[in-house]
Amino acid sequence: MKRMLIATLLVAAGSAQAMTFTDYATVLKSEPRYQTVKDDNCEQVNEPVAAPAPSGGLEGMVTAENGGALLGGLVGGVLGHQVGGGKGKTAATIVGAIGGAMAGQQIARNTQGARPTTASRTVCHPSQREELTGYEVTYEYHGQRNTVTLPSDPGRRLKMTVNAQPAASAPAANTTNY
Q: Which residues belong to any copy of the Glycine zipper 2TM domain (predicted)?
């Protein structure tokens, strides 16, 4: 029992002597590693738009301009009819209708708003590129070869952090318990 206690104390005392230091390993090979990354590269494109062609019938006739002219002509005719008497009344009605039609057509043009001349659409150009993910480094340290992946190329030497501590000694094979 006393020997077991002494061995445990010696191991504990030995671990208190642990040491950390920096050393260098020789780099044997350093190769870049890449990953394929896909990009969509989408953009908005504005293209000219043609005005729709009339398809026949009254479609080309029934417009805001024509409606404005009709309404303006009616209002102008009614207002012109209120002026004058006899043949002058007829002339005032005709002049009021023509003036009202012209004014109504112009008002309709101004308030109709501009028709869009372009249309927007999304165009994608898929592509791919190679992106560097790190370096696969093979190094030798005290006769042993290892391979690790690092974020950057270490050059010809690889900085190593070494933790050293005494190994615990194994108890003697022929111990007797008292």
A: 67-107
Per-residue pLDDT tens, the chain, 178 aa: give them: 444 444 454 455 554 577 999 999 999 999 999 999 988 888 888 888 766 555 555 555 556 666 666 777 677 667 766 776 777 777 777 777 787 778 777 777 777 655 667 888 888 888 899 999 999 999 999 999 999 999 999 999 999 999 988 877 555 555 444 4
Structure-token match 């002058």, residue found: 88
Give the Cα separation of 60 and 66 in Å (integer). 10
Per-position DSSP letters for 44-64, written without gaps between them: EEEEE-PPPPP-STTTTT--H
Helices (H), the chain: 2-15, 64-81, 87-112
Sheet harboring 19-39: ordered strands across? 144-150, 127-141, 19-39, 157-164
CA separation, residue 60 to residues 24, 63, 64, 65, 159 (Å): 87, 7, 11, 11, 83
Angle formed by the axes of helices 64-81 and 87-112, nearest 10°: 150
Under 8 Å between Cβ of 53 and 177: no
Q: What is the pTM of this model?
A: 0.41
